[in-house]
Amino acid sequence: MALGRRKRRSREFIPPKLQMTSMMDMFTILLIFLLVSFSKDVVTMKIDGKIQLPKSNAQADYQDNVRLVVSENNLWLGSDVVAEVRNGKVIGLDPENLQGSVLYQRLKECKKKVDRSKDEETDKNLVLFLCDKRLSFKTINSIIKTAGMAGFPNFQFGVLKQ
Amino acid sequence: MIGFRSSRRRPEQDTDLDLVPIMNMFLVMIPFLLLSASFFHLSAINTSVPVLSSSEGAGAAENTVQVTVIVQLEEKGIHVSAMSDEVDDKTLRNLETYIAQEGQAQYPLEKLSMFLQDIKNSYPRSDTVIIIPEDSILYDTIIKTMDVARYSNDEQLFPNVVISGKVG
User: Domain of B95: which CATH number?
Assistant: First the structure.
């Protein structure tokens, strides 16, 4: 009883102030980091597995018109898987009959679409090629040849800036 | 009188800065910047595959002699040669070399760079290199070779890179 009385008589409750300084510090650091990594042309790529792009001192900008991505497991054309890659071999891509492959057919369709577009600034024969650095030329060669035959003889090899 | 009055003023209390509007601004900016942040800076190396084309016509003057450098990437080393319609066979043979890989060390790209620089100095109008990798050569090695062939110490060597498979 005595305690309860004492409590009631205690001073008026003052809500505690939030300590904002440390939160501001955190936000400032975050803001600076994000401002540095700001890019006006963000490309979101849906890539299965872990693709390791090679590093290079190249500075040229890329043109994301038609995109071929080769990982250790899949071959992508744009956002669609067009073939599987197993032990460095592209399944369904016969070096003797490249024109009979799904990749060739799909690239041909892409070429028609690209040719129909009225954008004159883009190179219509260009493919952005993103490939895992651990793959051998044997894997890449047939893909490059197929793209060349389908009407895309020019490539941009996508690399990470050093 | 004024001075006397001010000396009797009560001591100033610490005023807290109102950080809430700044916090609001930060909370708006951070999601926007998170969406537009790029965590991997992608760039590109332009290259092409060989295509059939018509011949270029009349021969060039001597000071515009061009050679096309061929770099064959093999498992044990790099074979460099050159071809040109404007240079005789004997001169072209002098431009041929084989740079062997020493032991299990790195691929001999530094020696290749020096050799390509020599060719560029002899034929400054040359701008094309054809890279022919063996099947076992890794993509990473091809990219590194392209870097070496395109630039050396910020000096442009052969900016036009053509990649081709071995024929035959």
Answer: 3.30.420.270
- A30 at interface of B, judged by CB pairs closer than 8 A: yes
Nearest by CB: B37 against A24, A34, A148: A34
Residue of B nearest to A140 (CA): B139
Q: How many CB atoms lie within 10 A of CB B15?
A: 6
Number of domains making up chain B: 1
- Read off the pLDDT of residues A131-153 as tens digits, 9 standing for 90 and up: 999 999 999 998 999 998 999 98
Give the model confidence (pLDDT) of A25-55 as tens digits: 898 998 898 888 776 666 666 665 678 889 9
| A136 near B CB under 8 A | yes
Give residues with Cβ within 8 angstroms of A63, minimum separation 6: A122, A123, A126, A128, A156, B44
Asked whether residue B112 is assigned to any structural domain, the reply reads yes
Residue B56 lies in a domain: no
Which helix or strand (DSSP H or E) is residue A107 part of?
A: helix A102-116
Answer whether A137 sits within 8 Å of B48, measured CB to CB: no
**Does residue B27 fall inside a structural domain?**
no
Q: Is residue B15 part of a domain?
A: no
Q: Tell me the shortest Cα–Cα distance from A94 to chain B, in angstroms.
A: 15
> At residue A104, what is the residue type?
Y
Other C-beta atoms within 10 Å of B78: how many? 22
CA distances from B95 to A44, B76, B77, B78, B81 (A): 45, 20, 16, 13, 6
Range of the domain at B135: 65-163
Q: Which pTM value belongs to this model?
A: 0.75
Alpha helices by DSSP H, listed for B36-77, are none
A47 at interface of B, judged by CB pairs closer than 8 A? no
Q: Kindly tell me the sign of the dihedral angle through the C-alpha atoms of B137, B139, B140, B143.
A: positive
* Cβ atoms B126, B158 nearer than 8 A: yes
E-state strands within B2-107: 42-48, 68-73, 77-83, 97-100
